[in-house]
């Protein structure tokens, strides 16, 4: 597969816990009766696993040329197969804005019941989201948000600020007893809002730990190659530090190579997103990587649940409201050796 520029590949990734997403899946599809009070006790229909009204869901995302994006597609497909009443119309995916718009317009012309869209560029695809909504097709906006709330019925995605916040708090707690502790940050693409949000969350968390100072930050571009190159630069510039936060587990593969080549093991490392390779390393406990902060691709499975509920005119189990929420932000759980077995099945390759 030809590689696309990193800015295209990961521009949509704006940051999470797989278990939180899993909880949402359960909530969306629960067969358990809910204890409701008042009018809602009798009136609110809830989506469940039992076959209901047939729903055709159109799914449009960018080109799956990254582990996280492949996992997004896999989660959507496998979730749709769970339901005998769901037909999934999935596009090939593209990082070219015009091409993705054309793919979505094809789904609109097919008169699908609901659309799930993960736009390569949320701002650029806002108009096609509006077009679908005006055509009476509700849109579940997945992860990268459209510029107008009128372009979608429901948004579901990760929490980039929360990723940085939780990574910072984890590191802070690990270094509580260390005087004059030093941390470094291996960020993603600096021109992306998601990177800025992750850094802001990290900085805000560190404010709670006066013994810690961030002494260096280097921006990479979410690839193995960039992670290795930029980490090598950090290691050369910083002869000693106590902790590293790396925004992305894919570039973390390269970062770990640079760390091994430098023979460094004098600090702890926290990753980001939740790749299987990172979780395997955390479980093995034989590297500096001690934790990763999740940005779960299981959100695509949740998006299918929400789209099915919308198509069937139902709500979410566990909530008293008649309608599904207008937005759902997933939690950024920290995966460590203590809980890695719980999250390992959600790790993406």
TrEMBL record:
It is found in: Cell envelope. GO terms for cellular component: cell envelope. Residues 31-51 are annotated as: Disordered. Coiled coil: none annotated. Keywords: Signal. It holds the Pfam family Peripla_BP_4. GO terms for molecular function: carbohydrate binding. Residues 1-21 form the signal peptide. It comes from the Bacteria. Residues 57-314 form the Periplasmic binding protein domain. Its main location: other. Belongs to the bacterial solute-binding protein 2 family. PANTHER family: D-ALLOSE-BINDING PERIPLASMIC PROTEIN-RELATED. This is Secreted solute binding protein. It comes from Streptomyces viridochromogenes (strain DSM 40736 / JCM 4977 / BCRC 1201 / Tue 494).
């Amino acid at each position: 597969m030809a590689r696309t520029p990193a800015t295209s590949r990961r521009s949509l990734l704006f940051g999470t816990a797989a278990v939180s997403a899993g909880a949402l899946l359960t909530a969306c599809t629960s067969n358990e009766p809910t204890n409701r009070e008042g009018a809602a006790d009798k009136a609110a229909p809830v989506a469940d696993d039992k076959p209901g009204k047939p729903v055709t869901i159109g799914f449009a995302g960018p080109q799956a040329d990254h582990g996280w994006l492949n996992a997004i597609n896999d989660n959507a497909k496998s979730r749709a197969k769970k339901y005998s009443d769901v037909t999934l119309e999935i596009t090939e995916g593209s990082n070219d804005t015009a091409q993705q718009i054309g793919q979505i317009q094809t789904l609109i012309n097919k008169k699908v019941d609901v659309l799930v869209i993960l736009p390569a560029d949320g701002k650029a695809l806002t108009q096609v989201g509006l077009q679908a909504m005006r055509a009476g097709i509700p849109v579940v906006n997945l992860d990268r948000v459209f510029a107008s709330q009128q372009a979608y019925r429901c948004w579901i995605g990760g929490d980039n600020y929360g990723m940085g916040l939780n990574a910072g708090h984890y590191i802070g707690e690990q270094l509580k007893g260390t005087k004059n502790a030093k941390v470094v940050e291996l960020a993603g693409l600096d021109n992306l809002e998601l990177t800025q949000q992750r850094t802001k969350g990290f900085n805000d968390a560190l404010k709670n730990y006066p013994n810690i100072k961030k002494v260096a930050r280097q921006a990479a571009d979410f690839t193995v190659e960039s992670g290795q190159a930029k980490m090598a630069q950090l290691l050369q510039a910083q002869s000693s530090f106590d902790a590293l936060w790396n925004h992305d587990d894919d570039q973390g593969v390269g970062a770990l190579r640079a760390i091994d080549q430098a023979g460094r093991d004098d600090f702890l490392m926290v990753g980001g997103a939740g790749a299987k390779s990172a979780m395997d390393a955390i479980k093995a406990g034989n590297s500096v990587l001690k934790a990763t902060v999740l940005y779960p691709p299981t959100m695509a499975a949740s998006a299918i649940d929400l789209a099915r509920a919308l198509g069937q005119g139902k709500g979410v189990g566990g909530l008293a409201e008649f309608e599904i929420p207008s937005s759902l932000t997933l939690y950024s759980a920290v995966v460590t050796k203590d809980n890695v077995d719980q999250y390992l099945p959600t790790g993406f390759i």
